[in-house]
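Help wanted!
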Amino acid sequence: MAEKPVVLQGLVKRYGATTILRGVDLEVAKGEVVVIIGPSGSGKTTLLRCINFLEDFQEGRILLDGEPVGYREETGRRLPRPDAEVARMRADVGMVFQSFNLFPHMTALKNVMLGLTQVRRLEEASARERAVTWLERVGLGARLDALPAQLSGGQQQRVAIARAVAMEPKVMLFDEATSALDPELVGEVLKVMADLAHSGMTMLVVTHEMRFAREVAHRVVFMDQGAIVEQGAPEALFGNPQTERLRQFLGHFAPKL
Amino acid sequence: MELILASLPLLGQGLLVTLAVSGAVLVIGTVLGAGLGLVLLYGGRGPKLAARVYVDTLRGIPQLVLIFAIFYAFPLLGLRLPAVLAGIVALTLFCAAHVAEVLRGAVGAIPRGQSDAARGIGLTFAQRLRFVILPQALPPFLPAWTNTAVEIVKSSSLVSLVSVVDLTMAAQQVVGRTREALLFYAVAAAIYFAINIALSLAGQRLERRFSHG
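Answered by r_m:
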């Protein structure tokens, strides 16, 4: 179990009558970088949001280091976990959002420190030290006291990455982390993500950046209509797609590849 | 001038009553309203519906009717409240409904991603409120709350209609004695105006203190 930080088994998510995820199975190994691609509405974002229980799900289970997310399982029954337990498990899952979602009333440093002091219960001084280390690693050592509004989109997203990764999570989730950025700012964020991948972080990345997928991913997963259609090593998946749906999807990116 | 000096004690007492009624209503009403607002925002289906019905009902009833209802109708149910208390209770119920709605609006305007990010780093519900949601709700909350406070100070004059000697009633009594209606109603108006200007200025200062880039 220990080498599989994230395991999804038969994950089903419905919104009323609409089924968003129709029985997804996925295992992510420690240190593995899995990139999820697929057309919009294919359930990629919902999949990520289920892993830290930002979204509830109706069937199946998600195991985080072997521990079921969102529900306790007792004698075959599914019991919702209380808020404090859900929160404790979320602390071990880092998430980076398309819209950054920095706390606008806090400086970059305070954004990173909040989880360290309140959730990890670090002393102020060691929280600060760890926050500064991570902000320096994402290239923002000079902007510690800047408010989010004073930072560019790329800088904000790098602070958001520092905020998530400083918690030392078991897995990092990236939900279209570069989609809201101006084209010239995409590179700086992808570079931080690639560095993180090379440092051995377990990562699940939803993105439309096919070059990133090709160069950084250990495995690429193609989703369509709430299910995994095809997956494999990037060379295989991009070089020799087995399904018509994937061929069509990749066709949209052909000029760029 | 002598007239004014002679009437000062009565007006002063009336002012104290007005301040006491307004203050009590605002403090209790804000605390209750904040709780009610949280139920509107985060309550389960049942409590949320109950809070919604309460807020919409209370906001739809004239304050004077509320005061009369509590002052005249409650004794029929065996609950006799002194006039001042009836006034305070009625206005507090009204104030709480308004504050609840103001809080709901202020929190509702915060992008959903803020709550996602706060959850994402593992904050519990109480921590999310304390560190992420409420600090961001405060700047939009304050001006709307100040408006409510000004309304409450003005509405407090309605307690004079159940014969509480507040500033309005005091002015009325002084006018009855001196026949100087214009003068003393102007004095009363000026005092109400001064209280509310002070409230507004205090509100603005707080807003500036808590607003962020």
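OP: Thanks! One thing I noticed: The mean pLDDT of chain B is 94.
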